[in-house]
What we know:
It is built from five helices and eight strands, in the order αααααββββββββ. By secondary structure, it is an alpha+beta fold. The chain folds into two domains: about 20-105; about 110-210, Lipocalin (Beta Barrel). The protein has an eight-stranded antiparallel beta sheet, with no helix packed on it.
Amino acid sequence: MVRVACWASVAALVWLAAPTASWAASFDCAKAGTPTEKAICKDAAVSKLDEQVAAAFKAAQGLWPAGNWPVFIRNEQREWLKDRNGICKADVACLKEDYERRLTFLTHPSLKWMGRYVAGRCPQDGVYLDVTPSYPDAGIGVTLYLCPDPKGNMLLQAEGDVDAAGKLRFDDAGCPRVLTFTQDAATLSAPKTEVCERGADSRAFRRDPAKSPYLGE
Length: 217
């Protein structure tokens, strides 16, 4: 009986001396130094989200291993981390919401279609499409420009999500448009309708890996 009582006392002392519970994260919680990192390690849900975002970021880096993509996605992640630390700090509710939004972005099917798509001998006599993410819903936005002026002569703008067939459907001044994505290309079609008589032939664009996504000159 005495032995049991002594064991219980030792166990209680060990429990009281143990540090606050910390959960697994994408980084070593033993080395957590900032208020944000400490808050992540102390909350199981946020810690799990941190692991999921880290895994999603790693997968996103491999979507397009060449061209501007690796630079873009790393810089984008770095800016997100900076905003996370500066805005949420140690606010667990804020961190949870921010991580969920980030996870949606990094795992969104439309992410892989981002880039610059060119037709003709752009910029000499062609046109190009810039496909970029639309925040906060992580859909994509499409901007069609007439070369060679990247700051003017914009032909259309659209936003939406690409469906399972790789098609983005949108409206251009009452005229239906369909942008169909394949592995390294996009095709813009503008069928004639009763409402829109200015139908156009399909125009094919090839993805330019050296400028995808377009990061500016």
